[in-house]
Amino acid sequence: MALILYFILLTSFQTFSAVAQPRNGSVPVGASLTASEGAVEPWLSPSGDFAFGFKQIKDHFVLSIWYAKIPDQTIVWYPQTYPTVSRGSKVELTSGRGLVLSDPQGVEVWNTSSSISDVAYGFMNDTGNFVIVGSNSGNNWESFDYPADTMLPTQVLKRGGVINAKLSQTNFSKGRFQLKFLQEGNIVLRMRDIAFDYAFLPYLNSSNSASQLIFDATGYMYILGPNGQRSDFSGKNTSLSSEQYYYRATLDSDGVFTLYSHPKNPTGDTSWQDFFEVANVNWPYSDYAQIKSISENNCTNSCKEDCFCVVAIYNNNDCLKKQLPLFNGRKGQTEGGKALVKYRKSELQRIPTKIQVEKKDQNTLIAIISTLLGSSFLVNSVLVGLICVGFFMNHRKKASYDYPSGNVFKTNLHQFTYQDLVEATNVFMEELGRGAFGIVYKGVIGTNIVAVKKLDRVFDDSEKEFQAEVNAIARTHHKNLVQLLGYCDEGTNRLLVYEYMSNGALASFLFGDGKPSWKQRCCIAVGIAKGLSYLHEECITQIIHCDIKPQNILLDDYYNAKISDFGLAKLLKMNESRTNTGIRGTKGYVAPEWFRNTPVTVKVDVYSFGVLLLEIISCRKSVKQIESGVEYGSILTDSAWDCYQKRILSTFVENDSEAIEDYKKLTSFVMVGLWCVQENPSQRPTMRKVIQMLEGVIEVSEPPCPFPFSIISS
């Protein structure tokens, strides 16, 4: 296929000669384009289907190739190493360097290749491939050899080829996902660590003789094996002619590799269909409404008219409506019925890519998703992708992995050597804080400041601590949780690498010299509640934190609250809601049931949050300082109840004028805190309900005395 394409291109180039200005796709040496808002004509292909030039994205410009005739003008190629430039930047076709991109000051920031010489002309093909032709009529460089996030018909991805998703629709930096054709012949779709510009490595126990991923002119993608053997990468689409439709295959920022089509001469509505059907698929934990004895058409319409509905499961005349986040997706004959998946409207129609894996003796073509589906964020991103394309519906076998010896953590985190972290922390010089099992140090990796937690004791509990942290945090992704970036498990050295929180712990913020603003404290409280709700209800494996306190809440550059220190986390299986465990936590924040040798639930975290909420409201510690081993001063929960009963909350906040002016919210927040610290766990609200009460979505009812048993005994 590559030879045929080369012959076509070669013979077509011989019919054109270099002229003063670009014409019919041909670009002479010396031609240039400048990034500006004005009407700068791009270099068009002969048919005008594709254009090469600068596309404006917000305040910046992208040197790119795009569809020129469709309204969306989708970008299909851009330089990976320097994707965006400023106004006034210039690209020029030179005789000795090929394409040269310079910034407004004339400083070169990118070129096609320093080894290119004797350039005759450039050519923008109707295939979307920009080529640089040498004086010997051979191709010195072509954009098809350096794909960005997209493949086009007639394009070939060879061993070593890489496709990187964008970070977002408007950010053309390398994103979180990468499709790579490994040298051993396997194609992998894997995650990237953006902070360290590192792609996680899959573990494989087989290699292949596959040599190319081919996207042919008809819109069919297949993997070429030995003796011309083909393995489908996408299904053949016989209903959409390539003469009437544009095709592209793009690795989107959500990690889904998608085959798109768009009519070349659109008439009528070209948007996506409203729904597509997938048989025997379900997300059993995402129901929010059920309609009985309803037709399939009415079920579809009900979901279509409901902005919360993303999927409707229709089975035996019943309609189950689902909302985001979708998690614990299941596929199998036992599920029954069909999933009616809602499409969002768009100019382009997304067509599912179908990865088919066929076994021929020991030669197995592997399409591996080396992403951890255990992570809630990743589950949702993959399943949202499924809403668009049904990506995994034809997966026929599970990939086999050969994990390295030693402790195995089911994560795709960056694994550091101990020496890496010794150097990053300057031999553990700057201490940020101390915990029950380790010390946290400040470090620098590349240009990024990180926090390195070094577990300082090596015994069974410490090993369990380490495994709990790695497995729990690696599966969690939420804006109110501290992100784990990597780890070290080398001999007796166990360390964790976290994102750095510049404003330190909430304890220092609350109990320092100055009192933070009331509005800021309210935002912090809601953020912590959302993080806990995520741990309790949205993770694939439910997590009890067990040690919620201000020292374990960190603040980022913008004082957003992030929950840290999962070292005491007690993980629950999905079918468990109670667990027996030893007493965990910190004095003053520990729920009463810890001391009764009874099973505990997520309500222990609710209790701790209640104490923390009262601290946030009052900027006072739950238990006063200790002098000569004796605690003095009233316990904060007692003080809160007393002030609430006497309607003197101004005393509780020590005459904080900003809080008193917002008396309705102040009262509501104190009432929520008192509900959370109820002695009876069943009376405490869930964290989801706590969020609703804090945000004023539901009314807060009058709380009872939080410690009735203590009053009776006194």
TrEMBL record:
Source superkingdom: Eukaryota
Protein kinase domain mapped to chain residues: 426-698
GO MF annotation list: ATP binding; carbohydrate binding; protein serine kinase activity; protein serine/threonine kinase activity
Family classification: Belongs to the protein kinase superfamily. Ser/Thr protein kinase family.
A Pfam family: B_lectin
Binding site for ATP: K454
Subcellular location: Membrane
Membrane topology designation: Single-pass type I membrane protein
Family matches, as SMART domains: B_lectin (SM00108), S_TKc (SM00220)
The organism of origin for this protein: Mikania micrantha
Recorded GO CC terms: membrane
PANTHER family, sorted: G-TYPE LECTIN S-RECEPTOR-LIKE SERINE/THREONINE-PROTEIN KINASE SD2-5, G-TYPE LECTIN S-RECEPTOR-LIKE SERINE_THREONINE-PROTEIN KINASE RLK1
Gene3D superfamilies attached to this UniProt entry: Bulb-type lectin domain, Phosphorylase Kinase, domain 1, Transferase(Phosphotransferase) domain 1
Domain Bulb-type lectin: 24-145
Broad class of the protein's primary localization: membrane
Top class in the EC scheme: transferase
Keywords in alphabetical order: ATP-binding, Disulfide bond, EGF-like domain, Glycoprotein, Kinase, Lectin, Membrane, Nucleotide-binding, Receptor, Serine/threonine-protein kinase, Signal, Transferase, Transmembrane, Transmembrane helix
Stretch forming the signal peptide: 1-20
EC number: 2.7.11.1
InterPro entries for this protein: Bulb-type_lectin_dom, Bulb-type_lectin_dom_sf, G-type_lectin_kinases/EP1-like, Kinase-like_dom_sf, Prot_kinase_dom, Protein_kinase_ATP_BS, Ser/Thr_kinase_AS, SRK-like_kinase
Reaction(s) catalysed (UniProt annotation): L-threonyl-[protein] + ATP = O-phospho-L-threonyl-[protein] + ADP + H(+); L-seryl-[protein] + ATP = O-phospho-L-seryl-[protein] + ADP + H(+)
Name of the protein in its database record: Receptor-like serine/threonine-protein kinase
Keyword Phosphoprotein: no
